[in-house]
Amino acid sequence: MAALIIGAGLAGLSAGVRLAAAGVPVRILEASAQAGGRCRSYLDPVLEMRLDNGNHLVLSGNRDVAGYLALIGASDRLKGPDNASLDFSDLASGERWTIRPNDGPLPLWLLDAARRVPGTGFGDYLALARLMAVRPGRDRAIGETLACRGALWDRLLDPFLLAALNTDPRLGSAALAGSVIAQSLARGGRAYRPRIAWPTLGAAFVDPALAFLETRGGRLRYGAPVRGLSISGDEVSALALAEGPLRVERDDVVILAAPPWIAGDLVPGLIVPDAFHAIVNGHFKIAPPPGAPAIVGVIGGTAQWIFAFEDRLSVTVSAADALADKDREALARAFWSDIVRVHGDLPAALPPWRIVKERRATFSATPAQNARRPGPRTAWRNLILAGDWTATGLPATLEGAIRSGRVAAAHALNLLGKP
Question: What is the torsional sign of CA 240, 245, 246, 247?
Answer without folding.
Answer: positive
